[in-house]
C-alpha cells in the first residue's frame, strides 16, 4: 500500500493503440505477419544478392545492401512485439524493454537516414563528376561511410535514452501508440512536459538538414541530366537515381508525418496508421523498389535464387 505522500513508480507500460482483443485484432495478426516475413526475406535477398555478385561490388549497390540489412533489424525492433500484442490480452512492455525498443528503433532509423543522405551524395558525384568518381568513391571510403552511418546513428541516441531513463514515471502507464516512441512516452513522465518541445525541435532539425542535403543533391543531379543531349542518355542517368529517390520519398515522407507535427495532435486511429506506414509499410516497399526497378539487381537476385535449382525450376530464371 502506498502512503499519502508517496508515489508508486511505473514499472511497465500498456499499449493502447491496438484494437481490443475481441474486436478482430487476431485478423490483423496474419497480414502483419506476412508483411514482416516479406520484409525479412526481401531485404535479406537484396543483401545477399549484392554481396554474392561481383558485378554489383560498387559503392551504389554496397550502400543498398547495407540499407537492406539495416531494414531487417529496424523492423525487428518493433514488429515482433506488435505481433505478440495482437494475440495477447495483456499488451504491456517493461520499462527497460520500452527504452531498448526506442533506442534500437530510432538508432537504426537514424542510421538509415544518414545512409540515404550518403547515397544521395554518391549519386551526385557519380553523375555530376563522373571522371573523378572512381578516385573519390573508393571501396575504402564506401566502407567507412557505411560504418560511420551505423556508428553515428547508434551513438547520437545514447544521451537522449540515458536522460529519459532517469525521468520519473509515476502516473498513467498507457502509451497511446503501437510501439514505444519518444513523444507518447515523455507525456507519461511526472515532470515538466515542456521538454517534449525540445525533443520535437531536435528531431525536426535533424530531419530538415537531411532532407535539404538530399534535395540539393538532386537539384544538381537533375540540372546535369537535363543538359544531356540524348533522350536515351537522360533516361539512363535518371534510372540510376530512381530507386533511391523512391525510397527517400517514402522514408522521409512517413518520417515527416510522424515527427514534424510539433504540437499538432491527430486522432488515435490516424496516429496508428501513420505509425504503421513509418514502421511497416516503408520497409515493405523498399526491396520491391530496389529489385523491380533495377535490371542488374533482378539478374543478381535470379542468380542467387535459382543457381543450382532443379530442372523443373529452371524456367523461372529465364
TrEMBL record:
Magnesium keyword on record: no
CC terms in the record's Gene Ontology section: membrane; plasma membrane
Main location: membrane
GO biological process terms on file: detection of chemical stimulus involved in sensory perception of smell
G-protein coupled receptors family 1 profile domain sequence ranges: 42-290
Membrane topology reported for the UniProt record: Multi-pass membrane protein
Record's subcellular location: Cell membrane
Pfam families: 7tm_4 (PF13853)
InterPro entries: GPCR_Rhodpsn, GPCR_Rhodpsn_7TM, Olfact_rcpt, Olfactory_GPCR1
PROSITE patterns: G_PROTEIN_RECEP_F1_1, G_PROTEIN_RECEP_F1_2
Transmembrane annotation, as ranges: 26-50, 141-164, 201-226, 238-260, 272-292
Endpoints of the signal sequence: none
GO molecular function: G protein-coupled receptor activity; odorant binding; olfactory receptor activity
Alphabetic keyword roster: Cell membrane, Disulfide bond, G-protein coupled receptor, Glycoprotein, Membrane, Olfaction, Receptor, Sensory transduction, Transducer, Transmembrane, Transmembrane helix
Superkingdom of source: Eukaryota
Biological function: Putative odorant or sperm cell receptor.
PANTHER family referenced in this protein's UniProt entry, alphabetically: G-PROTEIN COUPLED RECEPTOR, OLFACTORY RECEPTOR
Family: Belongs to the G-protein coupled receptor 1 family.
Protein name listed in UniProt: Olfactory receptor
Protein species of origin: Canis lupus familiaris (Dog)
Gene: OR6K4
